[in-house]
Specification:
globular, 19 helices, Growth Hormone, Chain: A, disordered C terminus, mainly alpha
């Protein structure tokens, strides 16, 4: 009986942790992905071209890039709970200020600051889940937590275009502040405190520089694969509305369908990788190849395709181009010792978001130079193919550090 009671308690704490982490990620995703969805409204409000629109959206992403290089180490040193609490306060302040100000220049500055603070949400959540589950069962909960990203993006795609059309661009950031505050503080309440002795032991064991080479492949592949995710998120509405005359709400609904596919894939791909004994690279390879195929389909897509055809296509696009993210972060954290997992995930996140920042405007430049989307989609297929080749030929098992991750007590076991 005592053993069953202890096991039930661990399962219960893990369940609460997972729910709270997913809610927190959802709130952060609505703000992050919502800014991407609102790109067309930034363009309309300030008279921006496609590349300029991409640059404004990328200011938030650039803040996230820098954040990932710093916040992961802070999470390793001070624990997810403390870093998340401070970060949530900063997020609420930055989002509220964006809701108040109107000129473009200060808006861009505070979008950048919002991105700087947003890094605490995925990194605190990912580190907590990584330490709460053993290696062989980690992919599924990581995928569930990361479902908060496409679900938040789906809600943003459905709700924000009509809300922005009615109330304007800036007031929506008051709503972002409320969602971030609710999710962040709920997660802080569930997270166990990080004990000083445990933090010091974790921080002092293995210098990150000794393991940095293990992060080259996941960081590089994440940088390349995210081109598909952000091209899809940023340009679905302009592509369908401008080329096919589909209304903005209908195009937003198709983007929401893609996010549903991404949410399902994050959970499904994590589960499949667990069943393959942690071979995350094989599942990531399959996802990348699927993205290559569907990008080529977009390149030859006829004009005025019926919605009934576009729905399954955008579902597949979401599964291949959005669903890989959680698995990449899990793989990155598993390739180093557990005391450096937060920093490793942060570095990989920064590489992914650097690719996002470049792709948001870079894809638009290709569209404008080529005079259409055909070359842009083919260029995206080539980029995803490079990621697939790297995953195909990399030697994962030669650099992976499993023992330290397997033997480290989990958060649930320590508290």
């Amino acid at each position: 009986m005592p053993e069953h009671s202890t096991e039930d308690g661990v399962v219960g704490r893990r369940g609460m942790l997972l729910v709270a982490a997913t809610i927190s990620q959802f709130g952060g995703s609505v703000a992050q992905q919502g800014t991407v969805v609102l790109g067309v409204f930034f363009a309309a409000t300030y008279g921006l071209s496609l590349p300029q629109m991409g640059a404004v959206v990328s200011s938030l992403t650039l803040g996230l890039v820098i954040s990932g290089l710093v916040v992961g180490t802070l999470v390793d040193r001070y624990g997810p709970r403390r870093v998340l609490f401070v970060g949530t306060l900063l997020l609420v302040a930055a989002s509220t200020i964006i809701g108040v100000i109107q000129p473009l220049a200060p808006t861009v500055v505070f979008l950048f600051l919002l991105g700087l603070a947003l890094g605490v949400v995925p990194l605190a959540g990912t580190k907590a889940i990584l330490m709460a589950w053993p290696l062989e069962h980690r992919g599924l909960p990581m995928g569930i937590r990361q479902m908060g990203v496409p679900i938040g993006a789906m809600v943003a795609a459905l709700a924000l275009p009509p809300l922005a059309s009615r109330f304007g661009l800036h007031p929506l950031y008051f709503g972002f502040a409320a969602l971030i505050a609710a999710g962040g503080f709920i997660f802080c309440a569930v997270l166990p405190p990080s004990r000083p002795a445990a933090r010091k032991a974790l921080h002092d064991t293995v210098p990150l520089r000794r393991e940095a080479h293990s992060l080259i492949v996941p960081a590089l592949c994440g940088f390349l694969l995210v081109w598909g995710q952000y091209a899809l998120a940023t340009y679905t509405i302009p592509f369908l509305h401008g080329r096919d005359g589909i209304s903005i709400p209908a195009a937003g609904a198709l983007l929401a369908v893609a996010q549903v596919g991404g949410a399902v894939a994050r959970m499904l791909l994590g589960h499949i990788s667990d069943r393959l004994n942690g071979r995350r690279d094989l599942v990531l390879l399959a996802s990348a190849l699927g993205g290559v195929l569907l990008a080529c389909v977009l390149a030859v897509l006829p004009v005025h395709v019926p919605i009934i055809v576009l729905v399954p296509l955008w579902l597949g696009l979401g599964m291949t181009m959005v669903g890989w993210n959680a698995l990449m972060l899990t793989w990155s954290g598993e390739r180093v010792s557990v005391q450096n997992a937060g920093a490793a995930i942060g570095i990989t996140t920064s590489a992914i978001l650097l690719g996002a920042a470049i792709s948001a405007s870079g894809f638009g430049v290709i569209v404008e130079i080529s005079g259409g989307y055909h070359v842009a989609w083919l260029s995206l297929a080539a980029i995803l193919a490079v990621a697939a080749l790297i995953l195909l030929f990399q030697q994962r098992w030669s650099v992976r550090s499993v023992t330290s991750v397997r033997t480290e007590p989990t958060l649930a076991a320590r508290n």
